[in-house]
User: Fold these one by one.
Assistant:
Number 1:
Amino acid sequence: MNIDAVPLGQEFTIKEIKDKDNPIVRKLYAMGLKEGKRSKLLLKNGRVYLLRLNNSRLIIDRDLAKFIEVA
Amino acid sequence: MKKVIKVAIAGNPNVGKTTILNRIAGTSLKVGNWPGVTVEKKEAVVKFGDYEIHLVDLPGIYTLEPISEDERIAVHFLEEERPDVILNIIETPNIERNLLLTTELLEFGIPTVVVLNMIDEANKLGMEVDDRRMEELLGVKVVKTIGRTGVGVNRILPAVVEAYEKNLIPKPVIYGDELERALQKVYESLPKKDVTKHTLIKLLSESEDFLELRKEIESKLGKGIHDIVNDERYAFAHGLFAEVVRKKGVSARDVTDVIDRVVLHPYLGFLIFIGVIYLVFKLSFDFSSPFVDWVDGFINDFLAPLAYSALGLLALPDWFLRFFSEAVVGGVGFVITFVPLIATLYFFITFLEMSGYIPRVAFLMDRFMHRLGLHGKSVIPLILGFGCNVPAIVATRTMESTRDKLLVIMMIPFMSCPARLVVYAFFVSIFFKNHPALVITFLYLLGILVALLTGFLLRKTVYRGSMLHFVMELPPYRLPSLRAVLTIVWVHVKDFLYRAGTLIFGASILIWLLLNLPPGVKNPSESVAGSVGRVLVPVFEPIGIDNWKATTSLIPAFLAREIVISSMGTIYTSAEGIEPQEEGFDAAEAFKEQVVGLGLAFRDALGSLFTLSITSLQVEEEEGEDTLRELIRRDFTPASAMSFMVFILIYTSCLGTYAVMVREIGKLRATLFLGYSFVMAWLVGFVVYRLMMVL
């Protein structure tokens, strides 16, 4: 499933990140979003999500989130 | 001669690089609490022992693969300029992610000092970092700091010098066997052997010469070269993290998450945003108002009479006394009275920037900006535009897409800056005394509306196409220190005073000269300035600006918008002959009055903090007096004053903004935009004027 299906406040594990040749996806990777990492969906606002990853908080948009398979 | 050490300050965005540089070098470079404050490389020089240390503050990067322009600047410097020492600043609470960039930096093989910043925040989260072990594993110097308070910062320069003197090359980063073998093959095939591991990886990943080798390793490991390299770097960083970081117990409940639940609520958050903006302007107006009045009194009732007395004693010619009264007191002095307003507004804007609230607006406003074809991140430069359009335009360098950057740059000049507020404050105090807040709010909203309309028009015509993805890090909330906020405020005030002493003073002199040319001219309306102003009257007459004094004051306003006020001061005092009051001036008595007045200003300013509505700008003034305000009241109507303010709001009459637009988007686009903003200003001014005439 992707992040869209995750309920607010729920933790999830990043299973797969697609299209790693895409520079913006590689930036996500450098920001710490990587397979096997635990993350938490803090908030949703329209087409953007706020995720918690370790001690950082990331905003990503829905289209970008589609590249991320979670469990 | 001192020996020079070139130091590159590198790290992830918003880890405190500039804060540390300001601490080390005593500079006042802009700092804030969001990723992307520094978008240009900035250099500071400090003398330390026998060395002159050139510290180059680079924009924040997550990786050495740049996407946006600010990231390209940082990576280009590291790759091409070859610094003597790399000062890698790490946000310790997020050390695992930060170590990925550290790993990439180590590939350069340059003496490195790692700064574990925000160590206090990491400790609160239950993290402990073994700095000695880190030094041992990497062959680098490691320093623990708290940039905001300065703890540990004094150990950075000795570490830099030691790394340089001992040429402490970091231990080589060793990756997995397959990748190392491939890199060895690349190395062996090169004629020049003086290459870094970073270069070898770049050649293997990108060069056509190593296509076969690349395909070979990709098929062996079953993934693309970028994945191979990233996974190896990540594994190294993760291993290092596991080796040097210890977690003790459970971390405290995070206050940021609790605040965010309210502040970032899709509906409540929006109301809070409106409330924050209202409070910023309410506090700025009401707190500064007593001081504006005091500075006005200090200049006109103390400094000016004191100067007239002194000049009288020197028996200077009449023209010089007139020049002093009309250009210096009437022009520059008048603009300086607004310094308290500028300072207070910057205080609150800086506080918001340093607290971490500004990037939250990006999250909040994305839903709205999306309809314009932009994402929420573009809100940040737009908000910065309320502080000053120039750095706001430069801040668009963090945007990954050129289309988005161009769109936002063409919207920023409509964000009303404090220089324009000076003009509104002046006119509102004359024509809209009963509804100052309403009128100023209307002008700010009108600016936003024109910006949105411009964005919409451009997106439908010139800048079509889809937007890029939105990804941004949100910092934790931080309570900025008063010292840090005041330092930034002082930078802005100094800049305003500098402009008053140079650009505004120069414009006042020029206007005064043109008002007195040709020599012997009796009626200022027949002077050179008057003639130029009269030629312009037909252009502005349809929008209600039908006198040469107003049109003339618009010409030098192209340099900076507040010059409108100083020019009006000069023109009106010159044309209408406001006489300086110098009889019976008692310096000691006047000084005493000023001291008492300052005390009262403090009392009134503090008292204003306890009211909810905006009460300032309701200036009580005796009608019939030949003050500048009264003279302007005679030449304008509320409708023409409103139209004048609308024109000042929309027309990009600021040399600084035009210059930075030329640099960022080219001369043709910047000049076309100037023409567009003029036409737009005229059209909106016309509509507003006509509507007010009808109503």
Number 2:
Amino acid sequence: MNDVSLDLGGESTAFIGQNGAGKSTLMKLLKGLLVPERGDILINGKNTKDTSAAKLAGEIGLIFQNPNEQIFKHKVFDEVAFGPRRIMDAREAEARTAAALRTVGLFHKKDVNPYDLSLSERKLVAAASVLAMDTDIVIFDEPTMGQDEKGIRTLKAILEDLKGQGKLVLAVLHDMAFAAECFERIVVMAHGEILLDGPPEAVFANEEALKKAGVEPPPVMQLAIRCGFTERPVTKESFLRLYYERR
Amino acid sequence: MSLYVDRPSVIHRLDPLTKLCYIAAAVTVPFICPVKSVALLVAAVTYILLAAGRVVTKVLPLLGFVAPVLLSIFIIQGMFMPDNHALVFRIGPLYFYKEGLSYAALLSLRVIGILGAFSLLVLTTKPSDLIQALMEKGLPPEIGYVLNAVLQIIPQMANALQRITDAQRARGLETDGRLLDRIKAFFPLIGPVVMNAFVETKDRAMALEVRAFNSKTKRTFLHVRKKHPADVALRIMCLAAIILAVVWRLVG
Amino acid sequence: MSIIKAEALRYKYPMQDELALDHLSFSIDKGEFIGIIGENGAGKSTLCQALNGLVPHFHKGAYGGTVTVAGKTVHETSVGELSTIVGMVFENPVVQITGAKLTVYEEIAFGLENLGLPRSTIIERVDEAIELLNLAEVRDKSPFALSGGQMQRVAIAGMIAMRPEIMIFDEPTSQLDPQGATEVFEAIETLSRNGVTVLVVSHQMERLARHADRIMLMHGGRLVAFDTPERLFAMDFSGISVRRPVYTEIVRTVQKAGGISAETVPVTLEGAAEWLVKHRG
């Protein structure tokens, strides 16, 4: 990280760039798992230097890539309730846990051992265990990795749900189509610095900067370029609208 | 994950098995001939070899580590050995006897010698070379693999532990601070560590399988271990030293 | 000429009730590039492992039917012997690093040492694999010090050094960034051009559709469709949640709106753009 200044809030934001660009490091800094050498990070006005990661857990949630690195309870419900039980009273924790399991569509498996679930389901358990903590900010680290179409659809629903609740959603992403479709703001990173920051249409249209960051525009935009459009749509719907307008 | 020190020296170029032979001689000879002069001679040869391998400074911290133990041997044997008769000196109420001090010196020389002999192997031999040498002599490949892999996979497990700790801290687990907190953090950390290692082990077993790890053919070793001309001579000398010691003991 | 042939292949994992592979019959010609798609849990990985002998030799369980690869019957041939016919690269790059070797070079040689090949042959083949996968820069590094994309290329190099005629890639890019994924797909493409029979499991439809000669669609352990990308992605897969390439998706939307029904659809960026420009009217 080198001299990064960012103000996040309001808009759901995706961080993109090559591996090693510093995206995951930035997320860990936000979460308080790492502390900046110079400069400060304020979460809801609290400086991460003065607050332990465990204390920040009620404000900001981070969903990691590998669910096997966190699951340790014998029942899905207990696994998901582990975090909430640490920061709220028992009744609220139970209610939040049940709600989070419904959001990810796993409430019917609440008594199952997480290790009897498939890997995609375990990812959802890990997501629920953070959602249940009802934090104002939720970060997803590469949520689309290894997901099939069904998993992607569930993920989209979860994101919409969080946005609807007025929460700030952040994500590190490699899937450009997903980033363009689900996020209002895109931050492009390279070598620990921010190259571009703005709405998807503007960010993905800046071909030169994308090349520098080693990132390709989403397929829809590539198709628009190939079809000779002057506009730069990022979703299927906007592409089709432009296409029919030209007819 | 190894103590190997890469230096251009003749000792480094010796066959690991020769160094193993040397350990065998350096350990057994001072026990077969329980006199200080032999122990001193063996220790002296060992440290000359360490110097030739240009690693003698790396042994010093080890010696520092055993120094308190040796000192306590001198005190206890010097004062309390049952055979003690001849008083050498006294410090206030503490009396030190010749027999005890002499025995302590013998023990210390042996310890220092053995330590040096093992260091000679460890500091001047790549673990993988030693394991390959043993495999060539019939160590089963499975055991060879485990010995090799342990050295590399432990740092990998340390990385995994860090990621697991992060994941649990992110869910509000206190992992440092009060002792009670740390004890409470044990299960949320150890569970995923074990599970993760288990899953990875199964996947790695498959990956090894498809690379013919269980093949029954005689393996090739890509890495050619160059035999030093001195190897055979040195091994014979080690064997001779042991035989001489036995003869000395039987005759003397 | 078929190099892989499955006849009524059935398989059930121990302790499970449902068939993981349910009466699969198909044949694949030498040199084909085959894509395998389907939901998670559809049986894609199990199928791969039934081709290189991990099913039924490593994973026990109930097995029926026959699979032959390059004339060998899989359930009668050991995994070690099959490894020189069918190579396999898995999803997770880290677990494919043996851990017993200190450098990339030695890591790639691991399988060849196990096969007991002469040292000169090993050196020749490892050098060739390093060149083909563009690993010269990292040949003396520790395999664990590499990026995911590099590790995955080391795993591929370790496999191709064993010179299998068939190479299977089980979600080889799902844990990589786009750059790493491109590196790996380009490596696979090179192998395919050299006449190797290639099977790739992936959710990255745009990439698969571009490279594959034919695609298998699996669902619930069964083979639902096996056809060229242009024909397969033109089908309706009701009840199966599989994405089409974004380009195809757009063309199909336009087709449906215009009441056009077609047996084939464009599946690549270029193909879709051409179609869309032509049908702009």
